[in-house]
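Before drawing any conclusions, I looked closely at one protein's amino acid sequence and its backbone structure tokens, quoted below without any editing.
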Amino acid sequence: MAPRWLLGLWGVVAAACAAAGGASAWSPGTATFYGGADGSGTMGGACGYGNLYNAGYGVNNAALSTTLFNDGASCGQCYAITCDTSRSGGQYCRPGNTVTVTATNLCPPNYALPAGGWCGPGRPHFDMSQPAWANIGVVQAGIIPVQYQQVKCSRSGGVRFGIAGSNYFLLVSVQNIGGSGSVGAAWVKGDKTGWIQMSRNWGANWQALAGLVGQGLSFAVTSTGGQYIQFLNAAPAWWQFGQTYTTYQNFYY
């Protein structure tokens, strides 16, 4: 594990770069919707958040095409999306409206369609919850051209750690991250161990090949924005698999 002062320095550099560069540029893409009028069909998904309300994300969410999903590294990131009236299909826009969504799922290619369909390789596409999509498009259209950019995530409360696995394997879902919204690196520490580096298993789930049952757990996370936080004593020694533990700290970048 890198020294804390070095990780902190990386965070300062990342913040300075963000301040200097401002928001990312708008890029062209497309958007559809799924999950029904109440968004209930968007729960779960390839990021592994389960119930999106319990994980802090709610109904304004989207499944990303392979190009944007980045093998799960984009899980939790936030995107501002607006309908593009200048392109074909723009007549179905709700002009002047922008909605911010969280990446919570993968929209896989459909190779029964040419080039894998709208979520095929090379296509930046958002399959949004219907309630989020309806802010920017006319539902009857089904698909609209959009402009999008990654933006800072604003979250309520602290980072949450959902724990699964077995006696000798820990699988942790890192949820409700503010700032950049996504995890760049993660560590876990038991009461009787040093810091153990974790690796991404799938989506927003990070794994450690360690037996930590019966030990209180602390976590350390570096966001993709470069900020490093230690979440000390995040779960008590009597923690259980299938439970989620909420902290009071969160990320700014």
About this structure: The CA atoms of residues 118 and 238 lie 46 Å apart. The longest strand covers residues 98-107. The radius of gyration is 19 Å.
